[in-house]
Design goal:
The radius of gyration is 20 Å and the shape is globular. It is α/β, with parallel strands linked by helices. About 45% of the residues are buried. Strands 1-11-8-7-5-6 form a six-stranded parallel beta sheet. A three-stranded parallel beta sheet has the order 3-2-4, with helices on both faces. A two-stranded antiparallel sheet has the order 9-10. Among the domains are: about 90 residues, Leucine Dehydrogenase, chain A, domain 1 (Rossmann fold), CATH 3.40.50; about 130 residues, NAD(P)-binding Rossmann-like Domain (Rossmann fold). It contains ten helices and eleven strands.
């Protein structure tokens, strides 16, 4: 099926897709426990940031539902970077810890990239260690940045064949836009990456069978910029207020106008967000399996759900 064969848009239900992924992860969690490798995810929080509390709460809820132990470790806002790196190294050496996630933002005296690089690649559940990012370039895509992987997973759920698909990615950040491009190229898609210096953004978008948007600008992409029947994956999360001061969460696309012409579209909220959390759980399971296999085990490799797409196929 091509993008223009179904002109009535379909919402890509992130909650349903996440539930399917979590079910597959739960099965693997049980196998890990039987093998003596119960997954344990450590959430690193530095300082007191209200927004972080929401993320941590959602992650903890998702982890506990599928049987992953979740520990929050809080550090003072004035901690030094060497002290934080030492704490990470201690977690690396602890065999009871199978995954580490650093909650953002971090205080200004901490270089988050150096902190991320301090996490052992086998425990890098965010997929942001330089080794994890580099593996994507070599088409080793089992574990990568959660939001990027979640976004590509949602495109697969449209049923479109990614091989030869014309895709535009709006946004070129190191943790979302660029990894999405490499993940798609690994699938055989033809990818154009646009950013703030791109001329005639609308021209690029109108030629695409699928458009990913991740720039943090509400309403940037509108319906007249979308090819009829295309898939629209909106990764943006923006808080806006109307004239009466009522706040609501929107994406980077104008949902109303885009949904009039798109074949598939992700709502905000309820789209990429839930799938990103589910992908974090999938990565946590993957990290635990890698550690078990690295340090030796008796389980057959084909017993595992190695990809979120193996539960029901690609789409």
């Amino acid at each position: 099926m091509t993008a223009d064969e179904n002109l009535k848009h379909k919402d890509l239900d992130g909650k349903r897709i996440a539930a399917d992924m979590n079910a597959a992860s739960n099965d693997d969690v049980e196998r890990l426990k039987e093998g003596g490798w119960a997954p344990r995810l450590i959430s690193v929080v530095i300082g007191d940031v209200d927004a972080v509390e929401i993320y941590v709460r959602n992650q903890k809820r998702a982890a506990e539902k599928i049987g992953i132990a979740f520990d929050e470790r809080d550090f003072p806002a004035d901690i030094t970077e060497p002290e934080m790196i030492a704490a990470i190294q201690a977690m690396n050496a602890d065999p009871r810890v199978t995954g580490i996630i650093i909650q953002r933002p971090v205080p200004e005296q901490i270089n988050v990239k150096r902190l991320q690089s301090a996490i052992h690649p086998l425990k890098d559940v965010e997929g942001l260690h330089p080794a994890s990012i580099g593996n994507i370039v070599y088409n080793e895509i089992e574990l990568g940045p959660c939001t990027a992987m979640a976004s590509v997973h949602m495109l697969r759920k449209t049923g479109l064949s990614l091989s030869g698909l014309e895709v535009v990615v709006v946004g070129h950040s190191e943790i979302v836009g660029k990894p999405i491009a490499f993940l798609l190229m690994a699938e055989g898609a033809t990818v154009t990456v646009c950013h703030h210096m791109t001329r005639n953004l609308a021209v690029h978008c109108r030629q695409a069978d699928a458009v990913f948007v991740a720039v943090g600008k509400p309403g940037l992409v509108t319906g007249n910029m979308i090819k009829p029947g295309a898939a629209v994956i909106d990764i943006g999360i923006n808080r806006i207020e109307d004239a009466a001061g009522n706040g609501r969460t929107v994406g980077d696309c104008d949902y109303e106008s885009c949904s009039d012409v798109a074949g598939w579209i992700t709502p905000v909220p309820g789209g990429v967000g839930p799938v990103t959390v589910a992908m974090l759980m999938h990565n946590t399971v993957t990290a635990a399996k890698r550690q078990m296999e690295f340090y030796g085990n008796t389980f057959a490799a084909d017993a595992w759900t190695t990809s979120p797409d193996q539960n029901g196929g690609r789409g």
